[in-house]
Amino acid sequence: MFKGNKIRVGTINIFNSAWYTIKEKLSVYPFEYNYNIDRKNLLYKHFFYNKLDIICLQEVDSFMINDLKKKFFDHDFILHTPEHVNTKSPKSNNCCIAYKKCFKLIGEKQFDTETSVIKNLIKYSSESGCEIQDAFLRELSKRKSIANMVILELSKQTYLGICNCHIHWNPLYPDIKLYHAYLIIRDFYEFIQNTVQDIPFIPLLLIGDFNSTPHIDHKKEDEIIQASGVYELITTGRISKNHAHHPARLRKSEAFYSYPELKIPPFKSVFKEINGKEPEFTNKTPSFERMHRLYFLQRTYTYINGNNSKKLKGYQNVTK
């Protein structure tokens, strides 16, 4: 709650390759943003006419950022962009967070896949000298996921931590998605702990394009429905090495049993908390239907005698 009102948060992946032709793919800048005024106006309508307080964007092209900053500023928003904007290509993938000017930015961090892999997992490769583990770590570093993290002061002594992320897309690599989600959330908690040690309570919002569904797609009717690795990790806080999306099971190699069990403080799904169930889809076109956009929320920990005591305390009243 903020000044007695709910904080309205929205998320959207603004890239849309459906507008492309081969000729347009070869152009210097993406066609749909340069020339499709109707599409831009539709995006702005979603941004500014839904009475949102915070807007999380994924796949923001680097050349769009200046225009978006001005547009958001004119509508009383600040557009927060990563400290190091991804400009390697005209279709660069950046996660940005727009928030009302009345909110104050307290801290920020950008997730870096390669740095996080080296920090958290490289020791398992160096200790074992296993080629399959080395290959997995190279894949983790190569197949990028993006996350932009901020802490906002909504009012005096009222804070909100946000992690806006875009998880790797390829459905052939669910274990990569799983480990990227794990590393992002670890970094998110570390960022919170290092930034707000004097704040006794802060709700956390994990939001974005996870390129994941709540359940694994099954083709056989008699198969047991199992939560996807990403969804189960986030909502239960742990993933067994026997899970279908853990590399030990997926890649059929005992080498991965040397990895630690994946554990995080769990989040609650906002969709499920509010509606009683997850939606059938959040992404739908005539040829494509998937649930990719997810909202997760957690009330986080208090500090006791300088030690971090993580406790899930329930659902904070922040809605999309």
Automatic annotation (TrEMBL):
Keywords: Endonuclease, Hydrolase, Nuclease. InterPro entries: CCR4/nocturin_mRNA_transcr, Endo/exonu/phosph_ase_sf. It comes from the Eukaryota. GO terms for molecular function: 3'-5'-RNA exonuclease activity; endonuclease activity. This is Endonuclease/exonuclease/phosphatase.
